[in-house]
Amino acid sequence: MKSLSLAVTLFVLIAVGCAHSPQVASSPASQAQPTLTASKSDAAPQKPQKPAVKSKGTPAKTEKATADSDATMDYTEETTGEAKEEQAPAIADPIQPFNRAMFEFNDKLYFWLLKPVAQGYKAVVPEPARVSVKNFFSNLGFPIRFVSCLLQADVSCAATEVGRFTVNTIWGIGGLMDPAASNDLNLQKQDVDLGQTLGIWGVGQGFYIVWPLVGPSSVRDSIDIASEYFLYPLSYTSEIAPWYVYYIVRSYQEVNSTSLRIGDYEALKEAAIDPYLAIRDAYVQYRWKKIKLKGAPIEQLAPGGVRLEK
Amino acid sequence: MKRLFVGLSILILFLVTSAAYAGAPLDAVKANADKVLDVLRDPKLKAPSAKEIKKEKLRVIYVEMFDEVELSRRSLGMNWNKLNADQRQEFVKLFEQVLEKAYADKILAYTNEKIEFTKESMVGSNLAEVRTRVITASKEIPITYRVILKNGVWKVYDVVIENVSLVQNYRTQFNDILAKNTPEQLLEILRKKVKAQ
To answer: At what angle do helices A275-295 and A96-109 cross, to 10 degrees?
Structure first.
């Protein structure tokens, strides 16, 4: 029975959460080997690249460097200075057919269910209230962030989280408000999670997985989906309430957060030539940077132990 | 006293170098961003019917603000060299249209957002990054503009939103498409997309 409910939960969770943000993803990270410099081919490395078969169609000429205007200038790393920029490595995608199917599933779930519901909700509930609800759920994410801070051996991060949780729970009306982030206290939410922690420890990202409901993830970052079962307080509602309460609350959380970002996913999808690849790449870049920012040697710490952006 | 002196000399140094750069990168981006905000907040253009006028104005600013050839070249990466001159020109145009159609409405929807310019840093002799933050009621979005100096003008060639580089994101897609298709087929895909939008 327990395992059934776990499976169901996972499914619902995914259904609910998955569609949520195929945009830049909310969970874990990516990074793998520091392949930083290699900028030319980096985007495609997952498949054994066939060297662009010049079959029919137009002959793909490689020359044409004869330059007069800017547009005729060839692309080289020296002229662009690209080599200096670091770039996120590509991710392996061996189960792409499955991933694409899940991507479609999440996409439909978003457009057919989540978005209409969120729009209706948005029309009724004013934005400040929705932001408060978001703060409340964010406050409940404290254990995950706290544990992640500790596992990253980042004491100031852990202390900041404890301070935030205390202040916001007591003076922020159970987390509805975020007084800790005010200018006076300046205790900002720490952008940490367990997938990122593994990345900092040096664990590679593994391959790309699109979970139904949860959305883009990687082998490594899937730990965040699992950890929620233990570390997210809502997972324990079944101890005191009927089992379906969890799903209702969790769904509500998803609807609320979706209502605050309707349009983001649409824009990203609209702009993409291949939405699946666009989102996969966005996910990888986002996770890679998140690990890099945290894993980088400490530069400056602002008051309150906030790590400034690089 | 000594501190003051150091501070002053840094200030002077900064003033001198920024003059040499024909307007520091940050100023260049900020000037254009301000123009965009002016258009968005223009009370005369509030009516829904003025949407096309706004779009036209934004297009003018876009051309001043972005280096679309550089943006296209970097988005294609090494594949850029596979396109001949005509194909390159067409690609630049199509790519610009794809971006415009995808983002114009999104930008027009902005109203109360605030843009904070946090930092600029030189990446190379002619490359720089300008960090900004767009602050909305519910969140803050970090946006970095990568700019390049050409003919004395700083122009944007990449936009990094929430740590995701636009250029790199497209390069992943174009690489994948060009691994299976010819440049002509890629152009055909883009033409279709522009039409469908």
So the answer is: 100
